[in-house]
Write a structure and sequence with these properties.
The complex is a heterotrimer of chains A (288), B (283) and C (280).
Chain A: E1 4-13, E2 21-27, E3 30-31, E4 36-40, H1 47-54, E5 62-67, E6 70-71, H2 76-85, E7 86-89, H3 102-112, H4 117-131, H5 147-159, E8 165-169, H6 177-194, E9 197-202, H7 205-208, E10 214-219, E11 222-227, H8 229-233, H9 236-241, H10 248-258, H11 270-281
Parallel strand pairs in A: 4-9, 4-10, 7-8, 8-9
Antiparallel strand pairs in A: 1-2, 1-3, 1-5, 5-6, 10-11
Helix pairs in contact in A: 3-4, 3-5, 4-5
Chain B: E1 4-13, E2 26-34, E3 38-42, H1 49-56, E4 64-69, E5 72-73, H2 80-86, E6 87-90, H3 103-107, H4 109-113, H5 118-131, H6 147-159, E7 165-169, H7 177-194, E8 197-202, H8 205-208, E9 213-218, E10 221-226, H9 228-233, H10 235-240, H11 247-257, H12 269-282
Parallel strand pairs in B: 3-8, 3-9, 6-7, 7-8
Antiparallel strand pairs in B: 1-2, 1-4, 4-5, 9-10
Chain C: H1 16-19, H2 22-38, H3 42-59, H4 63-70, H5 74-87, E1 93-97, E2 100-103, H6 104-130, H7 133-143, H8 154-183, H9 194-199, H10 201-225, H11 244-267, H12 272-275
Antiparallel strand pairs in C: 1-2
Classes of the chains: A alpha/beta (288), B alpha/beta (283), C mainly alpha (280).
């Protein structure tokens, strides 16, 4: 049994009004313990709605969300508990940071859980370590931080609740390459050390390909495909069809292949590309 | 001289700190932008590139050095309106640039402030909205539009002032891929069809590659200035600045490091395909 | 949920009514409201209703939308009607139980009041549905322009109103997002003592105010880039001009006023028994 699972999950905005929009249509997904799952899709594909259903912020129009096999809506207490077990961190830290110090802000979640002061303190320190916020920065005002730092404090504010599943909505959008690398690295480290599940929502495969163990592609309120990074990139034509970007290098090799050169067309990283060229130069044949 | 629209002459600028003086946001920057150019300014967050936008039309004034717009010094307050009309700036957050509650009324805001004749404003507004592909949304409310659409309305609002140069300060940073594409296309059209000089500030390497010229900033200083091919030929240096390198250039560099000779155009997909085809064909 | 508010919203369409000068609409809506209060018998009232319905049809606003806009005042209509039914004792007694007597006069009076309130609201919403907030501010601006002689700078006030109108939906959206983010960290906005709930406003208002301040700074830069200088020497794209449509509207309004007065005088006597008791 999966840790988190949805059953024909549907959501309609403004149901019963002439302006109703189906945001999610009979979605079935599973999140296993310890996975890093990337949910890819463009704006309006339903991915953000799905995330808010997973932690019980929204109530589904039809279908269920199960945590450890139990409906998260079975009781009010269960719904509240789910909010802590499935930690959702939104895209813009500006919507969540409010305390006077970084420390207090990271402590907000654990305090709401009613934990003892010692436990809260312990969790804040552990969470700050995961996101690389040094203890000397604890007294800083969150608004004085740079964009990348704010985002890390916001993530720490959710990690400190020790959720079994951490959901990050567009954690790297708007960051420069250095900030993006830092976030991706911290996600991977967090998973490796805690063995907890992480769900990363993104517009682009390229952003999350490095860390994801499994990918769910959403399109038009439905799950279009799911599989390993390799399996999804193998469908690169389908990806471009729905307007998702494919790595530049994949395009290069598709074109080389089309020219009749003996190279594989399934190349996604520069490392793969380098090895493939070396292989062909040594006189190897097509390696499907 | 006459074909230089924007000139930075040894400009240094720092923001006011609360108590201790902050380090300069821009230091000893000298730079010339020619009329009709499409220039990208690339740099990581905090490299000083956004300050360049604010300096370029007198929103902030240099601490030392001078900025000239068509020969007018931005320090000269008498030329303020003329300078802002010549160089428009589009900012990152589209929401915070739209003033009116109806798209077309927002686009009219600039020309109205300039006291342009109503019939002429109507003509300019319609034209500006058509260029950015938002004409059919002219009677919509801005808050119901997507990020990319709002940003295009903001661009139209600047175009309606008939500037000769537009500085875009990370206009795509808050947009989804579709919005980014639409805004990129709008910028290219302005440059190609209206001949407007475009200065485009970004930290997205892929977007910078679409410019004719790239200026790289690091630590408040200009560190590189050249064509995309020139800039990305030094893969390791670009990476050391905390910037991305196109996969094409990265692969070419790996091959070169390994002693494999590869020449020709290496930046674009088609260029690299041709260059690789040559060496693979031999092998 | 906050997004569902529809009263006072603009409905962008391209009808004759939409194109009228906002000053004309402001003034004539006011005139209509006076006349519907002046109307003192069913014939005049019916005349008002027909005129209001014609305006609605010409405006191209879907009837459904207009009806939806009435929902919030349903309560007021019901209460007023009940009061009329209970307290008006004229006409033929129909039903009688406990201390309550329902008469034909009471029922007619209730119907009359319902019509009056309903169409009073219909015409007021018609004004906001067909006039963009900006155009409305423009209209107010021109109507009250003489105030500038008293030292009040109406340009600035108009700008403030426009920006407020522009950013209210943005801020509402932002409140929704902040609530979601804080709820995800276990914040409870719905239950607890008043003290606890008041405390919960901090995680809501601090980000909201911080973001609003940042917005204000950025907006100031953007407005400076577009040569805003307090409205000196400003022109207006949609300059307010009295056009043919406005003359027609003026003529029709005069005819309407004359019509109501004529019908009041001609039919007033016959229905005086229940229409003169309306001063509740």
């Amino acid at each position: 049994m999966a840790l988190l699972q949805t059953e024909n999950l549907s959501y309609i905005y403004g149901e019963g009004t002439p302006f109703c929009v189906t945001a999610l249509d009979k979605v079935n997904i599973e999140i296993e313990k310890g996975e890093i799952v990337a949910v890819i899709g463009h704006t309006g594909s339903g991915k953000s709605t799905l995330m808010q259903l997973l932690n019980g912020l929204l109530k589904s129009t039809a279908g269920r969300v199960l945590i450890d096999g139990e409906d998260i809506r079975s009781s009010k207490a269960k719904t509240l508990e789910t909010r802590f077990r499935v930690g959702l961190c939104f895209q813009y830290p500006e919507y969540q940071l409010f305390e006077n110090t970084v420390y207090e802000d990271i402590a907000f979640g654990p305090k709401n859980m009613g934990l003892s002061e010692e436990e809260v303190d312990k969790r804040v320190r552990v969470a700050a370590k995961y996101v690389g916020i040094p203890e000397y920065a604890f007294k800083t005002h969150p608004f004085d931080l740079s964009g990348g730092e704010k985002r890390r404090v916001a993530i720490a504010g959710v990690i400190s609740m020790e959720p079994e599943i951490l959901i990050l909505d567009e954690p790297t959008s708007g960051l420069d390459p250095r900030g993006r690398e830092q976030i991706l690295e911290l996600i991977k480290n967090y998973r490796d050390r805690t063995q907890k599940s992480v769900v990363v929502v993104s517009h682009s495969m390229n952003d999350v390909a490095k860390i994801a163990s499994r990918v769910i592609v959403m399109y038009d309120s439905k799950v279009l495909m799911t599989g390993s990074v390799q399996e999804i990139f193998d469908q690169s034509e389908k990806l471009s069809e729905i307007g998702l970007s494919v790595p530049q290098i994949t395009e290069v090799f598709a074109k080389l292949h089309a020219k009749g050169l003996p190279v594989s067309e399934k190349i996604y990283t520069t490392e793969q590309a380098f090895l493939e060229i070396k292989r062909v130069l040594k006189g190897g044949g097509v390696n499907a | 001289m006459a074909d230089i629209i924007l000139k930075f002459d040894n400009v240094t600028f720092r923001y006011d700190g609360d108590e201790t003086p902050l380090p300069p946001a821009v230091e000893n920057l000298s730079l010339e932008i020619k009329k009709g150019e499409f220039v990208a300014i690339l740099g990581h967050n905090g490299s000083g590139k956004s300050t360049v936008a604010k300096l370029s039309n007198g929103l902030v004034i240099p601490e030392s050095g001078d900025v000239y717009v068509n020969g007018m010094n931005t320090k000269n307050e008498n030329d303020d309106f003329k300078i802002k009309q010549t160089v428009g700036v589009v900012f990152q957050n589209p929401d915070n640039q739209i003033v009116a509650t109806i798209v077309e009324e927002d686009v009219a805001f600039g020309p109205e402030n300039l006291g342009v004749d109503p019939a002429e404003i109507r003509r300019r507004v319609d034209e500006a909205l058509k260029i950015v592909g938002m004409y059919k949304y002219r009677l919509h409310e801005p808050h119901k539009l997507s990020g990319g659409q709002k940003q295009r309305v903001a661009i139209a609002g600047i175009i309606a002032m008939q500037p000769q140069c537009i500085v875009f300060d990370e206009p795509t940073a808050m947009l989804d891929p579709e919005g980014r594409r639409d805004v990129m296309n709008a910028m290219k059209r302005l440059n190609k069809e209206l001949g407007i000089t475009v200065v485009f500030i970004t930290h997205y390497m892929e977007e910078a590659c679409e410019a004719e010229r790239i200026i790289v900033m690091d630590d408040a200083r200009l560190v590189l200035d050249g064509t995309p091919e020139e800039i990305f030929s030094d893969v390791n240096y670009i990476r050391s600045l905390g910037l991305d390198v196109p996969q094409t250039c990265a692969l070419a560099q790996m091959l070169k490091d390994d002693g494999i000779e590869i020449s020709g155009e290496l930046l674009s997909v088609d260029g690299l395909v041709n260059s690789l085809a040559k060496i693979l064909g031999r092998g | 949920m906050l997004k569902d508010i529809t009263i006072g919203q603009y409905f962008p369409l391209n009808s004759v009514i939409h194109r009228l000068d906002p000053r004309v609409k402001l003034l004539y809506t006011f005139v209509f409201i006076i006349m519907i209060v002046v109307a003192n018998n069913f014939v005049s009232m019916l005349f008002c209703v027909i005129c209001a319905l014609s305006v609605t049809l010409i405006s191209k606003i879907p009837v459904k939308t207009v009806v939806k806009g009435l929902k919030p005042i349903l309560f007021i209509i019901i209460i007023t009607s009940l009061l009329q039914i209970i307290y008006v004792k004229t006409g033929v007694p129909l039903v009688s139980f406990w201390k309550i007597k329902i008469t034909s006069g009471g029922l007619l009076e209730a119907l009359f009041m319902t019509m009056r309130i309903t169409f009073l609201i219909v015409m007021s919403t018609m004004l906001t549905y067909t006039t963009s907030p900006t155009s409305m501010t423009n209209g107010l601006d021109r109507t009250f322009a003489p105030l500038s002689r008293l030292g009040i700078d109406f340009n600035i006030i108009t700008m403030i109103m426009t920006i407020a109108l522009r950013f209210i939906p943005t801020l509402i959206d932002e409140v929704d997002k902040i609530i979601s983010a804080q709820k995800s960290r276990g914040a409870n906005f719905e239950s607890g003592s008043i003290f606890k709930r008041a405390k919960m406003l901090i995680p809501l208002f601090v980000p909201l105010l911080f973001n609003a301040t940042r917005r204000a700074y950025e907006l100031a830069y953007a407005m400076t880039c577009r040569c805003y200088n307090g409205g000196k020497g400003k022109t207006t794209m949609n300059a307010l001009k009295f056009r043919a449509g406005d003359w027609t509207a003026s003529f029709l309004t005069v005819a309407f006023v004359a019509g109501v007065i004529f019908l009041n005088i001609n039919f007033g006597e016959y229905n005086a028994q229940f229409t003169f008791n309306t001063a509740v």
